[in-house]
Amino acid sequence: MSRLINYDSPASLASYLNGRSLGMQKKFGQNFLINPNARKRLIDELGIAPGDAVWEIGPGLGAMTRELLDRGATVTAFEIDQGFVSSLKEIFDGSESLRIVPGDALKTWKKESVRAKFLFGNLPYNVGSVILGDFIESKCFFSRVVVTVQREVARRMAAEPGSKDYSSFSVLCSSVYRVSPLLVLKGSSFFPPPHVDSQGVRLDLRDDIDPAGYPVLFTPLVRGLFASRRKTVKNNLQMFLSNRRIKDGIHIQDAAESALEVSGIDPRERAENLGIGEFRTLAAALEVYVG
Fold first, then answer.
1. Cα-based distances in Å from 207 to 3, 143, 175, 178, 204
2. What is the DSSP letter of 278?
3. DSSP class of residue 290?
4. Residues 15-27: pLDDT tens digits?
5. Are 150 and 195 in contact (CB under 8 A)?
6. If we measure between CA atoms, which residue out of 157, 159, 170, 162 comes closest to residue 270?
């Protein structure tokens, strides 16, 4: 593999980009992590061993890809920018441990017949939570995930019930993974420097539950109960049920009240104060009424 770029140098990156008429596309949320210590720390957190399979989202010009390959990983890199795809092929020419998948990762990952044990990526600000949510909702789970996201997203991922950052995304992440916030990255750690801070996050697959065994209604229910944060659980639940097919002879209000009673949830409570177990119990209780 040739080493065509100094990944720590904005000047080197700019020279490479300009020399190949490659522009940074804002719509793809492209920012290169130029802090070598941060790159090392993030990959240290991944904890890979030689031969481990890693999916990388948004490799860009391959700064993190290089680190992964140097540690002996086999990498499947999903890259949406066709110009960067061509560059990755040039930069890593001859590497048998790297496979590049061109196109939107939200569309292409589902076509992969073999899943990886690890997920890694400097995720674009505009779609970071969407990508992670898509994996979880599709029941594509990894033993460990290490990603960088906008700091606001990181706070939501790690938020506890009752906090202002607690959301449906918080529940979705913590229902499958143990979430550990990592280092905060200022704009100066990237090229070009973004106007917001980023943060690394580590997700470890939970061993105390079976994420694949959640009730079918779990995820849509969580989203439904957070639809209007100021409304009570009962009001949001009735709205959620109004958009579902309810079994004949059952009234929505009766179904909502009964399911809440069975689940031991106060109808006057709000979703932001419910834990994973309560959402799961309520989703299971609703299966009697939704069909």
1. 40, 10, 11, 9, 9
2. H
3. B
4. 999 888 886 655 5
5. no
6. 162
Contact in structure between 261 and 233 (CB atoms under 8 Å): no
The pLDDT of residue 39 is above 70: yes
Q: Is 101 exposed, middle or buried (0-12, 13-18, 19+ CB in 10 A)?
A: middle
Helices 218-225 & 233-242 angle (0-180, nearest 10): 120
The DSSP output letter for 207 is S
pLDDT per residue as tens digits for the range 105-155: 999 999 999 999 999 999 988 789 999 999 999 999 999 999 999 999 999
CA dihedral 28, 141, 117, 74 (to 10 degrees): -30
Residue entry with tokens 């890259």: 79
How many angstroms separate the CA atoms of 125 and 222, rounded?
Answer: 23
Q: For all residues of the chain together, what is the average pLDDT?
A: 93
Do 140 and 200 touch, CB atoms closer than 8 A? no
Is pTM beyond 0.90 here?
yes
3-state secondary structure 39-108: HHHHHHHHCCCCCCEEEEECCCCCHHHHHHHHCCCEEEEEECCHHHHHHHHHHCCCCCCEEEEECCHHHH
* DSSP annotation string for 134-195: HHHHTT---SEEEEEEEHHHHHHHHPPTTSTT--HHHHHHHTTEEEEEEEEE-GGGEESPPS
CA-CA distances (angstroms) from residue 28 to 5, 109, 131, 141, 214? 21, 17, 13, 24, 33
Please report how many Cα atoms fall inside a 13 Å half-sphere around the Cα of residue 138, on the Cβ side.
14
**Crossing angle (nearest 10°) for helices 36-46 and 63-70:** 50
Among residues 138, 201, 129, 197, which one has the least CA distance to residue 167? 129
